[in-house]
Design brief:
By secondary structure, the protein is an alpha/beta fold. It has 14 helices and 14 strands. It folds into two domains: about 140 residues, Alpha-Beta Complex (Aspartate Aminotransferase, domain 1); about 230 residues, Type I PLP-dependent aspartate aminotransferase-like (Major domain) (Aspartate Aminotransferase, domain 2, 3-Layer(aba) Sandwich).
Length: about 400
């Protein structure tokens, strides 16, 4: 061809460095025989976590029913199980008609934004954020406007800044709680203030709660939908994290709140869901068993549990370091670690991550990958066992000692 094929201009605002150039370089190093410790993605199965056996059996036993397409919203037993969970949490008025099952939460984020946004519409997204949110807003013609969640405020949302960013083009507020990447868990007072803001301006609340049961110490998770009355709330969750079933690709989205105002929105999302026919059917058969069965995640997050102990190892190693600091994560499966100010002129987050990968064979996610204005953080997952984490932080210390 005389001219190279140009990609869509919409991709210029799309970033996903978690699986970006650093991850590609790690793959190249692995092909050359190096063993890379990859801490860039929260993928429980890669670290020895297993999906509960009851879920696997439920899927296997229903394989004969999983061969045809199902309803575009998902199979009824899965949607009804989600409804029961919502009711048990104090969220009323929701039926299976307000539940969508998707190929993970990622697909549902895309569908719900596509059904909502017109070109130029704005969505308030936290900074730091999970970058899929900013990318999905851009891909669907919108503009992600980032409200700060500052480290000096324990990565809690800055409510005054959030309010100042609302204008006539604002359509929705994204809330990620427990937060990825910071591990912050938002108190009820903060969530109520966000709800009041959204209801006053008739904004949709998009509540990403994929880590809803993954909290530590005295942190309390409050479902956003329990606080919403006079606007529309979409709650996103799924099997990937709490149930360690990333590969099943099963997530759900629940409409609640002012459902009369959401009628057209729900129809629009159903149309988009129908265009892709349905989501992965075999994995949906695990939902009812997952939500109705023993919640093994609680033991993993308590003292003595593996997630708790791995988190504590990171806290301890950072506390012993002359080069690092961290706001203690109270939820999710990540730590958002800060480089000491002495490295500001010599080593930003991208340069540090590349140095750590090339010379010490550890892959982390630079903090600026999460749409921050600063470049002195990096994110690691808390999924590895304590022995592996000690190896990782030995290598991080060795890397930074060369610059200190």
């Amino acid at each position: 061809m005389e001219h190279p094929i140009q990609t869509s201009t919409v991709l210029k605002d799309v970033r996903y460095e978690i699986r970006g150039q650093l991850a590609h370089r790690a793959y190249e190093l692995e092909k050359r025989g190096y063993e890379i410790i990859s801490l860039n993605i929260g993928n429980p199965g890669l670290f020895g976590f297993r999906t509960p056996e009851t879920m696997r059996l439920a899927m296997i036993e229903n394989l004969g029913s999983a061969e045809p397409y199902c309803h575009q919203k998902g199979i009824f037993p899965a949607r009804e199980a989600v409804v029961m969970q919502q009711q048990n949490r104090g969220i009323h008025g929701v039926t299976a008609d307000e539940v969508f099952i998707g190929n993970g939460v990622s697909e549902l984020i895309d569908l719900s934004l596509r059904a909502l946004l017109n070109p130029g519409d704005e969505v308030l997204v936290p900074s730091p954020d999970y970058p899929l949110w900013s990318a999905a807003v851009a891909l669907n013609g919108g503009k992600a406007v980032h409200y700060p969640c500052r480290r000096e405020n324990a990565f809690q949302p800055d409510l005054e800044a959030m309010a100042s960013l609302i204008n006539d083009r604002t359509r929705a507020i994204v809330v990620i709680n427990p937060n990825n990447p910071s591990g912050a868990v938002y108190p009820e007072e903060t969530l109520r203030a966000i709800v009041e803001l959204a209801e006053r301006h008739e904004l949709v609340i998009l509540a990403d709660e994929i880590y809803d049961q993954m909290v530590y110490d005295d942190a309390v998770f409050v479902p956003m939908a329990t606080l919403v009355n006079d606007t529309v709330c979409l709650t996103y969750s799924g099997l990937s994290k709490v149930y360690r079933a990333c590969g099943y690709r099963v997530g759900w989205c629940v409409f609640s709140g002012e459902l009369d105002a959401a009628e057209e929105y729900i129809h629009g999302m159903e149309l988009l869901a129908a265009l892709r026919l349905c989501s992965n059917v075999p994995g949906q058969w695990a939902v009812q068993t997952a939500l109705g069965g023993f919640q093994s995640i609680q033991g993993l997050c308590e003292p003595g549990g593996r997630l708790y102990q791995s988190r504590q190892t990171i806290i301890d190693r950072v506390g012993e370091s002359d080069y690092l600091s961290v706001q203690i994560p109270m939820g999710a499966m990540y730590a958002f670690v800060r480089l000491d100010r002495r490295f500001a002129d010599a080593l930003d987050d991208q340069a540090f991550a590349l140095e750590l990968l090339e010379k010490h064979h550890v892959l982390v996610a630079p903090g600026s990958s999460f749409n921050t204005s600063y470049k002195d953080h990096f994110r690691v997952t808390t999924l590895p066992d304590t022995e592996s984490l000690h190896i990782v932080f030995d290598r991080i210390e060795a890397c930074l000692a060369n610059y200190a």
